[in-house]
Design brief:
CATH class of the largest domain: Alpha Beta
Radius of gyration: 23 Å
Helix content: 40-55%
Structural class: alpha/beta
Oligomer: single chain
CATH architecture of the largest domain: 3-Layer(aba) Sandwich
Distance between the termini: 74 Å
CATH topology of the largest domain: Rossmann fold
Number of helices: 11
Length: about 260
């Protein structure tokens, strides 16, 4: 009986000492994320607020003010939050007409091409480009693709290059057999494709982007949907400066709506 009383007393003390939750100030936090990454979440503020509350509670963070302060000091936590908020729904052989158009242009350049995918997500798009170029007769030494993404999680997945049936639902059985190992419905990409693509975790607005080489072609699909119009224009200018030929067009996604 006395033992039971002691346990209850301890529980009451723990409850009293627990910090008070205060998840107000979502606007300031969203502004901070936008300033850091360019990503604009204001049009889905309530959804982002609920997601960030869950993110905080899993990490014993009791307010958005505490989260913002921690993100400024802790790069790993900042990266975790970005990974948690960004959506990376993609699959192989998505919007292939743009890739086919690029391949025609690359053939006219003499079967040589340096290509950038920004964002690369989990690697589905850059690996699709590599497969289509190999199928079109390009030799491995004559082209290379660099994929960049703000999410460290998807970059790690891209480097691992192991996919499921959902990722390959638009991939023919012939191409699956040619370029993947089937391991109990887990598809492992073969080295002949993996070697054509390298990945980097980088924000398009980071100064280190300038250290990348110039590219013949750039794909930037489904990144601009996160930006407001001003940031879209800024991002487009940055990408345009990475092209070898300024007159070349960047391949944007249909939903990006970049003027």
């Amino acid at each position: 009986m006395f033992g039971l009383f002691k346990k209850k007393k301890k529980k009451i003390v723990e409850t009293i000492n627990k910090p008070i939750e205060d998840f107000s100030g979502i606007e300031e936090l969203i502004s901070h994320i936008k300033n850091e990454t360019g990503i604009d979440f204001f049009n889905k503020k309530e959804i982002i607020k609920n997601k960030l509350i869950m993110f905080c509670k899993k990490r014993d963070i009791y307010s958005f003010k505490e989260l913002m302060s921690s993100m400024k000091q802790n790069f790993s936590l900042r990266q975790e939050a970005i990974d948690y908020l960004t959506v990376n729904e993609t699959y192989f052989f998505r919007e292939t007409p743009q890739i086919e158009d690029m391949i025609k242009k690359a053939k006219k350049l003499g079967f040589k091409a340096e290509i950038l995918c920004a964002p690369s997500s989990s690697g589905d798009e850059p690996y699709t480009i590599a497969i289509m170029m190999l199928e079109a007769g390009f030799k491995p030494m004559d082209f290379h693709i660099i994929g960049i993404d703000i999410s460290e999680t998807v970059i790690k997945k891209a480097k691992t290059a192991i996919y499921n049936e959902r990722n390959l639902h638009r991939t023919s059985e012939e191409l699956k057999q040619r370029y993947f190992y089937d391991d109990n419905n887990q598809y492992i990409l073969k080295e002949i494709v993996k070697n054509q693509v390298s990945f980097r975790c980088i924000n398009i607005f980071d100064k280190t982007l300038e250290n990348l080489r110039k590219f013949d072609f750039i794909f930037s699909r489904n990144m601009m949907i996160y930006f407001d119009q001003e940031t879209k224009i800024k991002a487009k200018d940055i990408l345009q400066n990475l092209l070898k030929r300024p007159e070349e067009s960047i391949y944007f996604g249909h939903a990006d709506m970049v003027g």
